[in-house]
Write a structure and sequence with these properties.
about 0% strand, disordered C terminus, elongated
């Protein structure tokens, strides 16, 4: 997440806090660990409906601020309503002067980029906090390479794609995009692209796995509009196991398939799920057994009058009844 602590500071372990487009790095002994055993298996692909062994190598994160990827399946002129605008049309609809002027309002005085202070002011003008879901969506549509920074090319070319040249335009486009994500569900291609982006966006420079606390915060954030039923239990499991070294790309990507297809009571550990999922299911199964046993014991105590004060007569009452 970068070393920026200016606009957002994550709380200490064991519970991870919120994290936004300008999120502080989570510190700790495991936060900077790079696990070579898991990193070599990472991939950008999400699994199909049936889990398969994932062995393809993912490309390293590209550094720098140049705009190298297009969004929405490479459609440069894709708009939130599904329509498209050609490059020529974009040039006529959005003035470069307007975009440059908007960029200059928020850029850093020393660098040709919008940094933490400018991002805070931008978020304020948009009516959002830096850790709001809408700001994650904005970073996605700008294809931001890292937190706490929008480069000039990211900002201008991203807004060209959004067909937005003012704060009001950005507000409108964000509402449209979020409405579309809310309506289409977490199985839509748009959400999958946002989900994949979130992992890359959250990485510390030079790292290939997310620290555990950062992964927990980002899972909470990215599932804002669609919260899987299993998510609270998954996050609780992770927070109870702070010895987990981190979350690699494979695990992040496959979790989306896991929440769509997994039934803990029918979980097949012979499938090609990451071992962390096996551990989670085992943990949940044991927890549910313990809860069921406790409930059974409580009901049994109530039925024989010995639990919670019992409600049954004590020894003195029995003697009094007998003597009477």
């Amino acid at each position: 997440m970068g070393s920026c602590l200016t606009c957002f500071k994550a709380p200490p372990n064991p519970t991870a806090g919120n994290v936004g487009v300008c999120g502080g790095a989570v510190s700790g002994p495991d936060a900077a660990v790079i696990d070579p055993d898991v990193a070599v298996h990472e991939t950008d692909d999400l699994l199909a409906a049936s889990p398969i062994r994932m062995t393809s190598l993912g490309s390293d994160r590209k550094s720098g601020g140049s705009f190298k990827k297009t969004l929405l399946n490479g459609n440069l002129g894709a708009l939130p309503d599904g329509s498209t605008v050609t490059g020529k049309d974009l040039a006529t609809q959005i003035s470069d002067n307007d975009l440059n002027k908007l960029f200059e309002e928020y850029k850093d005085s020393q660098e040709d980029a919008i940094l933490s202070e400018g991002i805070e002011r931008l978020c304020c003008d948009l009516g959002y906090k830096p850790d709001d879901f809408a700001i994650l969506v904005l970073a996605w549509r700008l294809d931001a390479s890292q937190m706490c920074q929008f480069t000039k090319s990211e900002f201008i070319q991203g807004l060209q794609q959004m067909n937005a040249a003012s704060i009001d335009d950005i507000k409108t486009r964000l509402r449209q995009i979020i409405d579309k994500l809310s309506a289409t569900g977490d199985e839509s291609e748009d959400f999958k692209q946002l989900y994949r982006f979130t992992f890359r966006f959250g990485l510390e420079p030079g790292h290939r796995i997310l620290s555990l606390d950062m992964a927990v915060s980002l899972w909470r954030l990215v599932f804002t509009v669609h919260t899987p039923d299993i998510l609270p239990r998954w996050l609780n499991f992770l927070e109870q196991h702070q010895n987990i070294r981190g979350v690699p790309k494979d695990t992040w990507n496959m979790f989306l398939n896991f929440v769509e297809t997994c039934d803990i009571t029918q979980y097949d550990d012979t499938e090609a799920w990451p071992s962390l999922f096996d551990d989670f299911v085992e943990y949940e199964q044991e927890r549910m057994k313990a809860v069921a046993a406790a409930a059974l014991a409580a009901n049994s105590s109530k039925s024989d009058g010995t639990g919670d004060g019992g409600g049954g007569p004590d020894e003195d009452d029995n003697n009094n009844d007998y003597n009477s």
